[in-house]
Amino acid sequence: MIHDDEAKPANTLAEVYVNLRRSGKFTVLATCDCELLGKVLREGKIVFEVREDFYKGHRVTVEEAIELCKQSTIVNMVGQCIVEQAVKEGLIHLEAILKINGVPHAQIIKM
Q1: In angstroms, rounded to a whole number, what is the distance separating the alpha carbons of residues 70 and 27?
Q2: What CATH code is carried by the domain that includes residue 83?
Q3: Which of 25, 27, 34, 81 could bond 72 through an S-S bridge, CB–CB 3.0 to 4.6 Å?
């Protein structure tokens, strides 16, 4: 028996939150996997809050979020779906990923 989530490729139609802000000449994007919104990730001395006021904006597909990443000058992303897709698209190098309690977090800064 095949479950619905097994029938489609990974990340297809998966949704993430995106919050896009403009500050002067910079476009800042915060994006996270939906299930992480409002959670607190802890590992050792690291305490990382996936705060609604920073990450919650619109729900979009991972593919739409990746397009926004390509257009943004600063990107802050957290979650398996969004970070994995950013790696596949060549936006993030594997060595640039920080894992906090197993959850990937990465940033992009275009200069």
Answers
A1: 11
A2: 3.30.1860.10
A3: 27
